[in-house]
Structure formats: structure tokens, C-alpha cells
Amino acid sequence: MMRPEYHFTPPQNFLNDPNGLVFYDDEYHQFYQHNPIGDVWGHMSWGHAVSRDLVHWEHLPVALYEEDGMMIFSGSAVVDWHNTSGFGNDNHPPLIAIYTGHSETEQTQNIAYTLDRGRTWIKYEGNPVLSIGAREFRDPKVFWHEPTQRWIMVTALPDQYQVRFDSSSDLKHWTHLSDFGPAGAIDGLWECPDLFQPQIENQTEQIKWVLKVDVLKGTGAQYFIGNFDGTRFINDATDDQILRVDYGNDFYAAQSWSDVPNERRIWIGWLNNWHYANLIPTSPWRGLLSIPRELHLRGYPEGLRLIQKPIEELKELRQSLYHVTDTDIATVNSQLAKLKMDISAEIQVEFTLGRARKFEINICTGDAEETVIGYDAQVQEIFLDRRHSGESAFSDKFAGVHRALLVSAEGKINLHIFVDSCSVEVFANDGLIVISDLIFPTLGNAGLRFYVLGGRVRLRTLKIWRLAGEA
Ligand code: FRU
After folding, report:
1. Which domains does the chain have, with CATH numbers?
2. pTM for this one?
3. Is the CB of 16 under 6 A from ligand 1?
């Protein structure tokens, strides 16, 4: 398996969740759950990389190592601008990492700081900063709450299906505020919460909060929309409503960057699933992150929904391969057959379904392989079928079809697809529905063709780029 071109992978060994995402001094920091000495989960530490554009990454040494039987589980990082922690000074604010210390008997919240732009980290001698005597209590996400002038820590109480909120004035002493849940999907342990205020498209006055939490080996990432008053989160919907972040199998543990300029809210997730995370056939690295996605809310008759869009910066990587407008599928297919497609590509297609019953894009095709991205008009579902996508025998949980309801006005559909060696991310109808899935096609299988059942479909536009990373 070739290393992805433009998706983040560790130089070697195991990677899971993104951690400690913070922007400071013109650099995006990205830490990640990492086994520094093996290619399966274990010895969890924080790997580290930095970037100026979220697209090109420079690998740095491991930032926080497992120590004295305590692994460094997931967490976040903030810039302590007012030096509330006292670790730095006002001219030189410290970056603070807030992470879960995992031992056999307990999970606690701990902090570490750096005064040299994240290059060296010092664990606080007063750790842990928050301990409730629980075996399952993890993944702190911390942010500064401007109206109440204090830090808020959001953590998961996984086996209670709850998110817990604490506050602090100095990041060292924490006071319990409230708990949220159980609500939504509870078909697995809750992990990796995040809480933020995305901008609402075409609106400036209204403020809404999104609370995201992942459901282990179940629904995956889900979110709630509501209000956070500095003490508690109030869900706008009834607690039985389930809103999914991604309809594929492989988008998990997403976290948003802290302190990004211009109020942008950007997150990145781990493209994997705990059902087979230790088994995917890649080497010498195992695990990759998604493309960074910019987040908004958009109003629909049924309410606000989370919108995810590939970040603009990815356009830097484009090399044009093919572009047509208003063309029928037979013509496009015959032209595509002659095109040298690349396994690292971006595809944008807009079409109107008309009377067709099914529309399919087959990607990564070879003699006996294909990954199908399609729309089934009879049930109004978009789907990704990876049953014949390539290697899948490493887990009986892998092969399958993943679907999402997509009701589309006048049959108009647009798809924005990112393929990169072993992953597919499909953004449908301007980021309303996302399907992220791993695939392991045989090397060289990069074909692309369209297929329509029961009607004629003209492509209003089709654009294909090769995306040239630096892998
Ligand atoms: C999520 C998770 C977190 C935990 C970390 C351990 O994928 O299980 O809850 O902190 O991974 O690596």
C-alpha cells in the first residue's frame, strides 16, 4: 500500500486520535495518539507535527511520552494568553496541553506546558489536576469561555454516556459544573467530546453551540446543537434525536483547532475504526488523519445542520486533469478511459438526476475491483459500497455498504470526493452529508467511470485534479 500523498500519516508506527490541536505564532500544531515503538495500539504518547497551512506538515519528535506506567491518552491544547496558569508571563504566554493520564486503575486529567513554541514540554508537578476516582474518565477538550472569563473543560464519562463540564481560572484547579447525557446514540462508550460555536451560514446574530461526542464501535461521531451558558449544555432537540457527523465507518475522534484566526472552526478526525484499527494492511505506519474540514451550521426546514467542507488550503495541491461541462455520460466515459487517473485525486461532479433510478461513480477500478459512490433515487440515498474495493479479509467488519438519506431538491446533487491511496471522503450537497471510508485497492487500480441505470443523466460539471502532496 502506497503512503497517502496529502493525508497525514506518522513516519512509522501506530497513530490514532488527533490531539492538542492549537494555532500559535503562525503554526498549526497537531499532536496525535501514537505508539512510538510499535505498529499496534500501546505505549500511548503524543506524536507531534507542525504546519503553516494545514496541508504540508513537518514531523517533530514525540512531545509527551508514557511514563511510570501512565499512558498519555487524548486531550487538547490552548494558548494561555493571560498567563492564568503562571507557567509563563504576559509577553510569553505558555501553551498548555490538557491530557488524560491512563493507568490500570484510574483515568485522570493532567497538564503540561511549553515555553518554546511546543518544542519541549514539561509535565506539571502538581498533576493530576482533576481526578474523580473513575476508571473511565477521559479526553479533555479545554477552551476559554469569554462571557464568564474562565476555562471550561469538556470530558467524556464513557460508560455513563455522559459529557462532563468543569471550570477553572488557572487550568490547575477545576470545579464541576454539570453533566450532559445520556442522549442521542448510546450504542457504545462515549469518547472524545468537543464543544464549539461554528458560524451559521448567511447569519451573524444567532449563536449556537455544537457538542460532538464519539460512540465507540457504534454510531461513530454524533453531534448535538444547542446552547452553552457557561455552566451547562442545553440540547435544542429532544434527547432521542441522533445527528450523525459522518455516514462512513472511518471518521472518529475528530477535534477542532483552538485559536485559529478569523473565527474559522476547523477539525480533523482519525480515518479508522476500532473494529480493525490494529489490522489495516499498511506499513511501516498504521493510521491516518482525515483532510481538515471547515465547519459551519446551515438552516434547513427541519433545523440547523452541521456542514463540513474541505479547507480552501487544499486547493494549493491541485493539478488539473480533466474538466467538462454539460456533457453526457457516454462521452465522458470514453474520454476517461484514455485518461491517466491518479490514486491521489479530487473529483467534483454536479448532476441532475432526471428520471434515472441510479447514478454511480466507480473509482479505483481495476479488473475485479471497484469502489462505488452512488445515489439511489428510489430510496433517496447516497451510498459508498466498498465490498469489492480491494483487500478486506483482515477484518469481517470491513466490507460493506454505507448509506445516508439525501433528499435533494429537483434531483440536483453535487459530490466532492477526495481519494488518496487508501481513503475516500465524499462530501455531498455542499458538505451536508459526508461519508468517509478506508479502502485498500490493488496498487495501480485507479480507474474512474460513470454508470446510470434507467435514464439519461447529463453531468452539469465534472472536474478532476491530481492532488500532489509530498509523501
Ligand atoms: C479514542 C480513544 C480515546 C482515548 C484514546 C486512547 O479513539 O479510545 O478515548 O483517549 O483513544 O488511545
Report:
1. 13-310 (2.115.10.20), 317-467 (2.60.120.560)
2. 0.97
3. yes
